[in-house]
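Thread: "does anyone have the structure for this chain?"

Original post by V.I.:
We have the sequence but no experimental structure in hand. Need at least a predicted one for the grant figures.
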Amino acid sequence: MRPGSTAAAIAARQRQTEEKLARVETAIGQLRRERGRLAVRAIAERAGVSATFLYENEAARALVKDAVADSRSRHDRQAQREHDRIEASWRERSLNAEAELTRAQKEVFAHRQRIGELMGQLRDFDQMVPGESVQQLTTENTTLKHRVHQLTQEHRKLQERLEGARSNLRFAKKRIADLEAQLLEQGNAPAARD
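Reply from O.Q.:
Generated one for you, tokens below.
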């Protein structure tokens, strides 16, 4: 072979390689814009090159590796934002339920104190007041007992809601941890093939 034809063949091969690298860069850009999966096979198919070229050519391998790493970190950031949003929502619900439960407990306590005071007054009046006043106090006492019963039921319902919110929060945290583990496993699988 003549030296001129060898140099021409080498130059032609370099042009082909540069064209392939340009197509690989274009394919990566398109997949990013389309939010497609950045994997070796997808990039090779879109660029019209072989997966072998992407593995064997150092520049192509670097382009693919950088694109896949960038895609994973972007996906990890999105997953973290979603995780934070869900956790904040459940935290807010739990805090609201706890605040409502605390308010109900205070109200129940205040009504019990009031009932105790009225019961004491009723006993005192029962000894000194005619029957008509006793009847009025008995009616008020019955009304207050009914209100305490209602508040006790509300307290029980709020306690159950709080337990439900806490259970949901635990489930959401477990589910998020499972999803993060899946993401890590999926993220490590393509890296192992590279």
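V.I.: this helps a lot. The chain has two domains: 3-56, 84-193.
O.Q.: and Residues 84-193 form a domain with the Helix Hairpins fold (CATH 1.10.287).
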